[in-house]
Amino acid sequence: MSKSKDNVDEQVDRGNDSEEITDDLLFAEYEDVRLSLRQELIIEPEDDVEEECIPEEVVRRKSKGRKHPYFYDFLKPCHTSCHIPYIRDWKAFLATEKYMVKNRLRELPITVDSTEIQYVQLCFEDLYTLYFAKRLVNEDDKPMITYYMIKSYNKKNALSWDLLKSIKYEKSILTATKFPFIGHLEFLYKDEQHIHLGFPFIAGYTLRAYLQENIRLDESLIKFYTVQLILALEYLHFVNIIYRNLKPENILVEPNGYIKLIGFMKAKYIKCRTYTHCMSLEYTAPECLNNLKGYGFSADWWALAVNIYEMGAGFTPFYCGIQEKTADRILNGIFKMPVFFTYDLKDLLMKMLYPDLRYRAGLTMYGIKTIKKHNWLSGSPWMDILNRKVRPPFIPELRNPLMERTFLSYDEETLNSNSFSKFCTDFEYDDK
């Protein structure tokens, strides 16, 4: 009997060892993928070839007239170099990050010398200027070139447009947060006229660019993106950060098929409520329009539902061309439901786009569980998607991202109600 017990104990011990080995192997696979993605963005220069440096004035002259925000649509700031370990326990990870983010908010971002940055091309110019640039750094006595997106703010314009608080929040939040589906600030540098934020370059494109080409997405792909957005928003809300800028323009699709949130100019660290109305009207929640009592994290969950609808239908649920009517539809919760949506997706959208906060999904006594355990999302491998172990339903095919011929361009055109006439037969009117 004693021998049999010893054999059983040995088998149990071996079983535990095998589980630990599998976890280590999974962690090693994750590290290999992360390092391979990192190496794709780093190119060693040849010894005999001199690197060209295009002055900023020449960059502006060459790119004159290109003001559309989607002209270089996949050149959006994001991060890959931020070390994010393999996450085994979601609740423990959130509890740890809540403490760490508070400490990181007090830290200053890494500053670099402006002489290390060489501008290559101007990508976008509006409230801020977006440059495609490269940075030459000597690591282990070897010159390494890393490509970045430089987001530059003019100090005079920031003062006149009252953007200093937004820049401060963006800088501190992107430095403090470290999550697989959220962008990260790599470095910061200043000069007499500008404030420059540096983000590692990723050769992807925004979800808006893909929707403009394909109109609407497959439901399996929508579900895959929705899981990542829910995890990202849950992480931000747990560390008391409200995003307030969730729309396809700020969802970056990476070359590996996963997404990242960018554009944190409107993000804010709050304790309970905020009263600033700064969201796009089509993605604004009813409580933001009735801004007497303020609003909280509910605005992000409402915007998530609008994005899910837009990914499946091709346009937002409350858009009608006139701002007053759009606001009235949002306040009353009146929208059209596509017939080709599945029953579970319709049910989820009806519950998430309910105008009354007391009965809206995600805000009841069970919280976010009412969304994560809904039938439409049941069976989703949450932890596997979080650790990027699931093969995405769609992987974009990108050519060499450093060549100008691969940049996406779009013609500016005005939207009108006639452009949606071909979808009229696919919709039914829904009175809520």
From TrEMBL:
<dbReference type="InterPro" id="IPR000961">
    <property type="entry name" value="AGC-kinase_C"/>
</dbReference>
<keyword id="KW-0067">ATP-binding</keyword>
<dbReference type="Pfam" id="PF00069">
    <property type="entry name" value="Pkinase"/>
</dbReference>
<protein>
    <submittedName>
        <fullName>Uncharacterized protein</fullName>
    </submittedName>
</protein>
<feature type="region of interest" description="Disordered">
    <location>
        <begin position="1"/>
        <end position="20"/>
    </location>
</feature>
<dbReference type="GO" id="GO:0005952">
    <property type="term" value="C:cAMP-dependent protein kinase complex"/>
</dbReference>
<dbReference type="InterPro" id="IPR000719">
    <property type="entry name" value="Prot_kinase_dom"/>
</dbReference>
<dbReference type="InterPro" id="IPR011009">
    <property type="entry name" value="Kinase-like_dom_sf"/>
</dbReference>
<dbReference type="GO" id="GO:0005634">
    <property type="term" value="C:nucleus"/>
</dbReference>
<dbReference type="GO" id="GO:0005829">
    <property type="term" value="C:cytosol"/>
</dbReference>
<feature type="compositionally biased region" description="Basic and acidic residues">
    <location>
        <begin position="1"/>
        <end position="17"/>
    </location>
</feature>
<dbReference type="GO" id="GO:0004691">
    <property type="term" value="F:cAMP-dependent protein kinase activity"/>
</dbReference>
<keyword id="KW-0723">Serine/threonine-protein kinase</keyword>
<dbReference type="GO" id="GO:0005524">
    <property type="term" value="F:ATP binding"/>
</dbReference>
<keyword id="KW-0808">Transferase</keyword>
<keyword id="KW-0547">Nucleotide-binding</keyword>
<keyword id="KW-0418">Kinase</keyword>
